[in-house]
Design a protein that fits this description.
Layout (H helix, E strand, L loop, with lengths): L18 E5 L4 H11 L4 E6 L5 H5 L3 E3 L4 H11 L3 E5 L7 H8 L5 H8 L2 H15 L4 E2 L1 H4 L8 E2 L7 H17 L7 E5 L2 E5 L5 H11 L3 H4 L5 E4 L13 E2 L1 H9 L4 E5 L4 E2 L2 H11 L2 E5 L7
Helix pairs in contact: 4-5, 9-11, 11-12
Length: 295
C-alpha cells in the first residue's frame, strides 16, 4: 500500500517536524508509532498517565495527566509537530475536573456544552481545541492505512448466504443509528437484532449476547454475526472502531459465526493473530465496503 501521508514538514529550526501521538491505552499507540517509523517519520509521544500501557509509557517523551491541558499544550508548542494524532483508549474525565482544566482557555458555558454532547461531541471538542491552538489533527486512516481492515475475506472461513443477509441487516441498523451517539457495533442472530453496542463497549456487548444464549429467545437461534463499522460521516481522526484477537474470542464464546467490519474504517489490532484466531475458532472475518462511504 502506498504512503498517503504528506511529506514531512521542517520546523522553524530546520529539524523535521514530528508526528506527535497523544497516547491512551491499548496496543494501538505502539502499533501506530512503529508504522510511522517504518515510513521514516519522526515520532514523539505524549502518554496519558494511568491509560497508556506501562511499557509504552516508559518510552514516551512525556507523561502527563489526562486533564493537564496546560502541560500538554506547552509540550506541543515546544515540539512544533507536523500533525497530532489522538490514539488509544481513555476514560471520560469527571465534568468538574475537565472544566477546571480548561477554564483558563474556554468559558464554562462552552465547556459544559462539550461535556453534555456525548462521546462524539467530546472528541470533536478536543479536536476543535487543538485546531484552534494551531495544530493539525491527523487520523490513522491517512497516516497508516495498513492498520485498517482491507476489503474482502480475511481468513479461511467464508460466510454462508444467511450470514450475508445478517451482515446487510447489521450495516443497515448501524447506518440508521449514525445520527445518534451510540456504539459502532451490533449483533444479528437469525435476522434478529440481538444486541446494539452501548457505552459498555464491544466486549461487554458480546458477553451480554453470550448470556442471552442461555435464555429461550436466543437458545433456538443458530450462529449470528458481529457487525462493526464507523458511523456515517464519522470523523475518522478519532474513535475509529477497533477489533482484535480478543474480539474473536468473545464472538466465538457468544456462539457467533463470524465478524464483518467496515473496510478502510475499522482498525484491526494484531491483524495476523486476529485472522489466526478466527480460523482456529471457525469464524469468518470480513472487511465489507460501506455504501454510504465517500470515495
Amino acid at each position: 500500500m502506498s504512503d498517503t501521508s504528506p511529506p514531512s514538514n521542517p520546523s522553524t529550526d530546520g529539524a523535521v517536524a514530528p508526528i506527535v501521538l497523544l497516547a491512551g491505552g491499548g496496543a494501538l499507540p505502539d502499533l501506530l508509532a512503529e508504522a510511522l517509523k517504518r515510513r521514516g517519520r519522526a515520532v514523539r509521544v505524549l502518554a496519558f498517565r494511568g491509560f497508556a500501557e506501562r511499557a509504552f509509557a516508559r518510552r514516551a517523551d512525556l507523561i502527563v495527566d489526562l486533564i493537564d491541558y496546560k502541560r500538554t499544550l506547552a509540550a506541543l508548542k515546544a515540539w512544533k509537530p507536523a500533525e497530532v494524532v489522538l490514539i488509544g483508549t481513555v476514560t471520560r474525565p469527571k465534568p468538574i475536573a475537565f472544566m477546571g482544566a480548561l477554564s483558563a482557555y474556554r468559558n464554562r458555558e462552552e465547556i459544559a456544552a462539550i461535556l453534555g454532547s456525548g462521546d462524539d461531541g467530546l472528541l470533536g471538542g478536543v479536536v476543535r481545541v487543538l485546531e484552534e491552538e494551531g495544530f493539525a489533527v491527523a487520523g490513522i486512516d491517512r497516516l497508516a492505512p495498513e492498520l485498517l481492515a482491507p476489503q474482502g475475506q480475511l481468513g479461511a472461513v467464508a460466510p454462508d448466504s444467511d450470514s450475508w443477509s445478517s451482515i446487510a441487516r447489521g450495516l443497515a441498523v448501524l447506518d440508521s443509528l449514525s445520527p445518534f451517539d451510540v456504539g459502532q457495533a451490533t449483533v444479528i442472530c437469525a435476522h434478529w437484532v440481538a444486541a446494539i453496542e452501548g457505552p459498555e463497549g464491544t466486549d461487554a456487548m458480546l458477553r451480554r449476547v453470550q448470556k442471552l444464549r442461555r435464555g429461550p429467545r436466543l437458545r433456538a437461534t443458530h450462529g449470528g454475526v458481529l457487525v462493526k463499522t464507523a458511523k456515517r460521516d464519522q470523523d475518522l481522526r478519532v474513535d475509529l472502531p477497533t477489533i482484535g484477537p480478543r474480539t474473536v474470542v468473545r464472538a466465538a464464546a457468544a456462539g457467533l459465526q463470524g465478524i464483518a467490519v467496515g473496510a478502510g474504517t475499522t482498525l484491526i489490532v494484531e491483524i495476523e493473530r486476529t485472522i489466526r484466531e478466527a480460523d482456529q475458532r471457525g469464524l469468518f472475518l470480513l472487511g465489507v465496503d460501506l455504501p454510504h462511504r465517500s470515495p
